[in-house]
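notes to self, project folder thing:

trying the whole complex as one job this time. last attempt i did each chain seperately and stitching them together was a nightmare. two parts in total, labels are on each line so i dont mix them up again. if this works i'll redo the older ones the same way
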Amino acid sequence: MKPDLFESPDYYNLDDLLSEEHKLVRDAARSWVKRAVSPIIEDYAQRAEFPNEIIAGLAEIGAFGPYIPEEYGGAGLDQISYGLIMQEIERGDSGVRSTASVQSSLVMYPIFAYGTEEQRKRFLPDLASGKKMGCFGLTEPDHGSNPGGMVTRFADKGDHYLLNGAKLWISNSPFADLAVVWAKNEEGRIHGLIVERGMEGFSTPETHNKWSLRASATGELIFDNVKVPKENLLPGKNGLGAPLGCLDSARYGIAWGAIGAAMDCYDTALRYAKERSQFGKPIASFQLQQKKLAEMITEITKAQLLAFRLGQLKNEGRATTAQISMAKRNNVDMALKIAREARQVLGGMGITGEYSIMRHMMNLESVITYEGTHDIHLLITGADITGISAFK
Amino acid sequence: MKILVCISNVPDTTSKINFTADNTAFDTTGVQFVINPNDEFGLTRAMWLKEKQGATLHVATVGTAAVEPTMRKALAIGADEAIRINAEPTDGLFTARQLAEVVKNGGYDLVIAGRESIDYNGGMVPGMLAAMLDWNFVNTCIGLEIDGDKATAVREIDGGKETLETKLPLIIGGQKGLVEESDLRIPNMRGIMMARQKTLTVMDPVDMEPGTRDTQYEKPAPKGDVKLVDPGNLDQLIDLLHKEAKAI
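result (full assembly):
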């Protein structure tokens, strides 16, 4: 793997819009990725293994629950800081960002937003420090884009709940200490339950042979008559809106994260195009390569503006689900297209592990599918502007 | 022990250097500023002293409000307090004079400054500061141990190292070797959060006229094309080296 020479593109001087603290948080995450992620990530991805050694570092830079209040172990940062941290981590690898997104938005957020004070105090500090890792169980083998159709159920057995069912495509599941699981009660209403490793009947088999997010652990959650203590139910919110609220937060992080992957591909392609010589001159002097690079920086700049404005709306509590869908869809699609174009700029070198581009490209195939597919997000925008849902 | 680390706010090493249209000033547009690397080695060494031996650690700089992010980073890394002398650091003498005032009034035992800043590479401030204060001084310092009021410092010399014994109060002109690059601290989230509460004092400068004034900047001439000389034509090579490259 080549040394990480990344230089962040900022074509519209967006740094001027960031606060001193935003930049401090962003630069710390950027330095940490250069030091701790870039040198090792290609090797882990090639071996399809999650780099456990970086968990402590992720916690140190505030990647776990940056916007969770300090009293629960979070950093009490704003949404733009959260986005910037996700951007920098995904600049390293989408799989590592996925681990951080899941921990922050899909595990810590529901415990913070829907949990009791006792649950917050019990779980959040250990999740913020990385002492405990979590995962999120919503998707099922037969229910992906339609999570409301889930069949995982729990029954009230007096002093406990009895949970049965299975979840699939669960990031972090193979090593998670706890899972925030969404299941229907006897009346068919969706509730969140905290299922802890070690509970009888709870297993987390790993999903192997992925061509994407290879440095991230993905697996299943299987519940075979799992007795869940009653105090592990999240009482604050129920119905499909509860898990979708978590997804809003995670999708927001992805909208920023994808910019990181795109910036890394662009920066690599630009550097390569200036150094690689054919026909006696750098390939950056050819119009076809300039077109690719110019379009990349244009799209990155647009995506940065979209994410920044969405961050302002999130900070004010005004970002809608549909607005978040638009940013997630646009920015991930942008990143995937840039990864493909950047790969072409590098020619044959682009397919090797010497450069990060092909890894980003393969990762982004998952990112464009998870947390709401590219198509579903388009239909969310469609439903929002017409008032007519095309999928319900 | 009370330590002061002097910090210079310098362009990141990857910055593209440009000057204003009339070539009289450095154009800071789009330039990212960082803690001067020689100062950062000193800051990290000071953090070790703080953590292992117990010390109060202050950082000081001469600069306008634009340098505050750099000072906030030093606080996030672990300095207890920051001091900014509110003035443009026009030259080494001016900067040293301002810092001397901070040292005189601060009750410090040890001052660590980078042996030079990587922007203008003057390399004057630590020496001038030592002269103004009449303190012991070790420049190009690559190792430092403190035991009570005794200090053992290692200095880089041509082809080797020199170990010196001296006493506090002491001024160090530090560089890589005090700690290694892999030892440099990345601010963690707890540090960033704590930095919010830490004091950053802004002081007025001591009134003095700068001794020098920048009149013009000039970039090095761009590299010309490589000229290939036939191995059999050494006379041409010598001619080129003499007349064009002016190397011999």
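what i see at first glance: The domain at 134-234 of chain A is CATH 2.40.110.10 (Butyryl-CoA Dehydrogenase, subunit A; domain 2).
need to look closer tmrw
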